Amino acid sequence: MAEINTGGGDHKGGKKRSKKASTRVDLTPMVDLGFLLITFFMLATTLIKPQTMEINMPSNDKVDKKDETKVKASKAITIILAKNNKVFYYFGDTDPKTKVEPTVIASDFSPKTGIRTMLLDRNKDIVAKIKALKKQKLLKRWSDEDFKKLATPIKSDKDAPVIMITATDEANYNNLVNILDEMQICNVSKYAIIDLTPHHKDLIKPLDK
Amino acid sequence: MPKVKIPRKSTLVDMTAMCDVAFLLLTFFMLTSNFTAKEPVKVETPTSISEIKIPETNIELILIDKTGKVFLGIDNQTHRLNLLKAMGEAYKINFTPVELKKYSLRATTGVPISQMKAFLALKDEDIDNPLAQKGIPCDSLDNQFKQWVYYARKENPLIRIAIKGDKETPFVVIKKVMKTLQDLRENRYNLITGLEEIPKD
User: Fold this and answer.
1) Which of B12, B22, B185 lies nearest to residue A1, judging by beta carbons?
2) One digit per residue, pLDDT tens: chain B, 201 residues?
3) Distance (Å) from the C-alpha of residue A15 to the closest C-alpha of chain B?
């Protein structure tokens, strides 16, 4: 118990003083109050600030045909998200001359064997360059902004693969976030979310039982 | 029995130090944490490696739960009040100041505009029930969601859109939401995710 000394002890000349009351204050309830308040703050607040991913979508305005950049068939990859966390992808598009459909490959999001291996492989030059850049960043202690400034032209190199992402109605939001995450992990900066066409549905029908 | 008097020591402990520790901890929590806003439904966000923090002010939160219900809220109370007023004028519903105030006290709400008056008339215990809110319709026939987002932008031009979806939200709903945002030319938005470790190659 803390000892709080009140001004007891001054004598008012001559008057008979009553017995001095104990000046000790018990602080136990004060501690209880303190812990109650801590418990309240611990339960009602959070120390974690939620994270976000930024998305830029292309605008819906009609683009002139001549302004549309033609994507080289060899660089285009189309990824289709389907139900049960399945992912289908194919390279290029239907050849207009021979009408041959591209081969669709089934995959999933597993870390070692899933779609990440394909993306890392397709993007290996850029991935290697970014890795080297990251090492330099550690050695030379660049700031995040400087690193970003140097990384952006590497990622949007004209030979980088372009990825079209689309999903069936049975996919879920987790699939979408995962694929966007893979884009970031594999250092792909050219991707777009497009609508599912009947052509896409036909392509995955034989594989999506 | 030998008469050994056990020396009695005082059993009272000095609580000053304990009190100091308690208040130090309390001060730490008060200064470093932020109050979480109460959300009408529990949403478990997917994880991603992105480490960009959510902005603190001027956020418009679009909450989508796993059944596909859409909720919307903006972070400033006065803006919320004006938003409901603007929606009322657009749909020719007159909201009383009491109803407007009650609406502005809740951070995120998702009710079709036709049921809004009935919803705001609910008692406090019922209003917090997650089943009481049916979600904002965003179908192409009745895209009330589009109006909400449009008026929210008009109310606060600096607002930034953040979408908080559940892991199991069906892609159909997300597609509708993203299409509506695209129609409104809102092409930059954030997706709220949890933190995931960057995989080691």
Assistant:
1) B12
2) 677 788 888 777 888 999 999 999 999 988 888 777 777 788 888 888 877 877 778 888 888 888 888 888 888 888 888 888 888 888 888 888 888 888 888 888 888 888 888 888 887 777 777 787 888 888 877 788 888 888 888 888 888 888 888 888 888 888 888 888 888 888 888 888 887 777 765
3) 34
Is residue B169 within 8 Å of B70, Cβ to Cβ? no
| Residue among A46, A52, A167 minimizing CB distance to B52 | A52
CB distance A45–B18 less than 8 Å? no
Q: Quote the domain boundaries for residue B129.
A: 47-195
What's the one-letter identity of residue A197? T
* C-alpha distances out from residue B85 to A131, A156, B133, B138, B152, Å: 53, 45, 19, 20, 11
Whether B22 is covered by a domain: the verdict is no
Judge: A31–B22 Cβ closer than 8 Å, yes or no.
yes
How much is the pTM? Answer: 0.74
Beta strands in chain B (DSSP E): 34-35, 47-48, 52-53, 59-64, 70-74, 160-165, 188-195
Q: What residues of A are in contact with residue B174 (Cβ under 8 Å)?
A: 173, 176
User: Which chain B residues are within 8 Å of A27, Cβ to Cβ?
Assistant: 15-16, 18-19
- Answer whether residue B8 is part of any domain: no
Report the domain count for chain B.
1
